[in-house]
Specification:
Elements: H1 41-58, H2 66-73, H3 86-92, H4 103-122, H5 132-157, H6 176-193, H7 209-226, E1 232-233, E2 241-242, H8 244-257, E3 299-303, H9 320-325, E4 327-328, H10 333-336, E5 341-342, H11 350-359, H12 365-369, E6 370-372, H13 373-376, E7 394-396, E8 404-405, E9 411-412, H14 415-419, E10 435-439, H15 440-451, H16 455-463, H17 473-483, H18 490-497, H19 500-505, E11 511-514, E12 517-520, H20 528-535, H21 543-548
Parallel strand pairs: 4-5
Antiparallel strand pairs: 1-2, 3-10, 6-7, 8-9, 11-12
Helix pairs in contact: 1-4, 1-5, 2-3, 2-5, 4-5, 5-6, 5-7, 6-7, 7-8, 7-15, 7-18, 8-15, 15-16, 15-17
Length: 569
């Protein structure tokens, strides 16, 4: 077999730049290899940066990613976008578009895994550590990130090849128990290795012991719920298992000792309360709100973005989700202020607005999270560029583009231009806010779910100005839906609770607009419930990876017939 074909998982990435060897010098001073790298703490820092960078590479095109697919697939959003934007609508309906729709995401995450494997194998070679604890922190971050990558891949595809070393191999899908056992093992290592100090002791954007504890709980809840298990068996060579009581203990450690907490006002979590916008937005004006982007104590783990996004390097250094969730259409920014424009993906399902109002009519988080367009944006023009499909009267506020007025009073395409004083003016690249993937409120709600107590639920409700409730699974489910709306958590929750098929089917018949004309959402390819039952909620593995494996990697069930393809409205 051609050796090039059996390294389809092991991505030989340019972790470190190299140049030609110096002329007439037999020692290579400029090319970094595992023979001479890493040697110093600076080298180790470069290795960690390269691992985290895989998150930005993946979000170069959010439409490839699990976070985006989970948002589209959940019952709280539709696909939206233009009439030729097929992949977003396909995710919404558990259909496929194209032979390798998520190729870039798969590749980026296996790049990240390769880099984490390299770090785990070589970090002990470094010299000059200030302490054993510092070395352990770096190693713990590598373990955390490998677990993070694999858990997302497992939620996206179900079973995937489990690559744990840098030697190139052609592996089949790992067994479910093997895959989750390794994820749990990596997180256990991360918890035991990383600093036992408040989260502020670690550089922002890096993993902490507390993030590992929170992710362990999320992994445990999904695995035991979806696969009907009571614990996670660790790899055979380690022995033992991760139990519910162990996970609860870790969550309590995080709650009591991490330094994380709830911000005072829920609205301060979202960028529309930034100082350049807050007093211009009628909903937030005069209420003393202040965006907590810097030093956000509620962010347990977040993907970081920067000013370095560009067409020549990586547009994923900017938060492209804001662009994808932006209001579709080239209309005057005054009509959509303070919300920016973009591709119009993820229109909010009217069912969420209505269910929320019926169950919790006084919950301030509903208006803090959802734009009711007829009320808030009365001059908004429906239809986008006359091509907007599956549009509704609702859009989400959390990760939508946000605008602000410049010094001349005109609305700028993004608030970032004013807030950060950017020299650029680009609606596609100028989104710098973090994408928080684990919040402290989620930690509290997971603790309530595992302990079947209302303490965490009521801390979260109190912040929203709501009265206390007694614990019930229904109360827990509602609280997670309201608190964590549009944060890519709902999809996993529905699946592990066994609620997905029925809740997804409720999307059929909801009121939408196609090209600005009122209509209703229809069933495609048998409907939402049928597609969920056919796939189990797992997406199609890129065909290119199946082909490169020469039969070793098998396609997921439900994706091998013409009925699995989205062919448009």
């Amino acid at each position: 077999m051609d050796m090039k074909k059996i390294i389809y998982l092991t991505i030989f990435v340019a972790l470190f730049f190299s140049s030609c060897e110096d002329f007439l010098d037999t020692e290579n001073y400029t090319k970094k290899t595992t023979a001479n790298f890493p040697e110093t703490i600076e080298d180790a820092e470069q290795m960690l940066t390269a691992i985290y960078n895989a998150l930005n590479v993946a979000t170069n095109d959010p439409a490839n990613t699990y976070l985006f697919a989970a948002q589209m697939a959940s019952d709280d959003c539709l696909g939206g976008g233009g009439d030729n934007d097929y992949i977003e609508k396909a995710f919404d309906k558990l259909l496929n578009y194209g032979v390798s729709a998520t190729e870039a995401y798969w590749t980026a995450y296996y790049q990240g895994i390769y880099r984490a494997n390299t770090a785990i194998e070589t970090l002990d070679n470094c010299e000059g550590w200030t302490s054993v604890e510092q070395c352990n922190q770096f190693m713990g971050e590598a373990y955390f990130m490998r677990a993070y990558f694999y858990f997302e891949l497992a939620q996206m595809y179900g079973q995937v090849p489990l690559v744990l070393e840098t030697e190139p191999v052609n592996l089949p899908k790992a067994e479910v128990n093997e895959l989750y056992g390794q994820i749990a093992s990596d997180l256990k290592n991360a918890i035991e290795l990383m600093y036992n100090q408040p989260y502020t002791a670690v550089e922002s954007g890096h993993a902490t012991k507390w993030a590992a504890q929170a992710l362990m709980a999320r992994v445990y809840l999904f695995y035991t719920g979806y696969y009907n298990q009571s614990s996670i068996a660790l790899p055979e060579e380690e022995g033992g298992s991760i139990s519910e009581s162990q996970v609860i203990s870790w969550l309590e450690d995080c709650i009591n000792n991490s330094g994380h907490g709830l911000v005072s006002d829920y609205r301060n979590l979202w960028a529309y309360t930034n100082s350049a916008t807050v007093e211009e937005y009628e909903y937030t004006k005069g209420q003393g709100l202040n965006w907590v982007e810097d030093g956000n104590q509620e962010a347990v783990f977040a993907i970081k973005y920067s000013v370095h996004a560009s067409w020549s390097t990586n547009i994923g250094y900017g938060n492209q989700y804001c662009l994808y969730y932006g209001l579709r259409g080239g209309q005057d920014y005054e009509k959509t202020f303070p919300f920016g424009q973009g591709w119009g993906h993820g229109p909010v399902n009217p069912n969420l607005w209505n269910d929320w109002a019926a169950a919790e009519p006084n919950d301030m988080r509903r208006e803090a999270s959802i734009i009711h367009i007829p009320t808030e944006l009365p001059d908004y023009t429906y239809g986008g560029w006359a091509d907007f499909m599956e549009e509704t009267d609702y859009a989400q506020k959390k990760y939508i583009a946000v605008t602000a007025r410049g010094a001349d009073g005109t609305v700028q395409p993004t608030f970032d231009i004013v807030y950060w004083g950017l020299a650029t003016d680009n609606m596609q690249l100028d989104h710098l806010r973090d994408l928080t993937t684990i919040r402290f409120s989620d930690v509290l709600l997971m603790h309530s779910e595992l302990t079947k107590t209302a303490d965490g639920i009521n801390r979260v409700r109190s912040r929203a100005g709501l009265s206390s409730v007694s614990y019930s699974l229904e109360a827990l489910k509602n609280e997670r839906r309201w608190e964590l709306a549009f944060e890519s958590v709902r999809w996993g929750d529905l699946r592990r609770w066994g609620d997905a098929a029925e809740q997804l089917a409720r999307q059929e018949g909801v009121a939408i607009y196609n090209r600005g004309n009122p209509t209703t959402m229809q069933a495609f390819n048998g409907g939402y419930k049928a597609r969920y039952e056919a796939t189990g909620g797992f997406f199609k593995i890129p065909d290119s990876q199946v082909a490169l494996s020469e039969g070793v990697l098998e396609q997921n069930p439900g994706w091998e017939t013409v009925d699995s393809e989205f062919s448009g409205w």
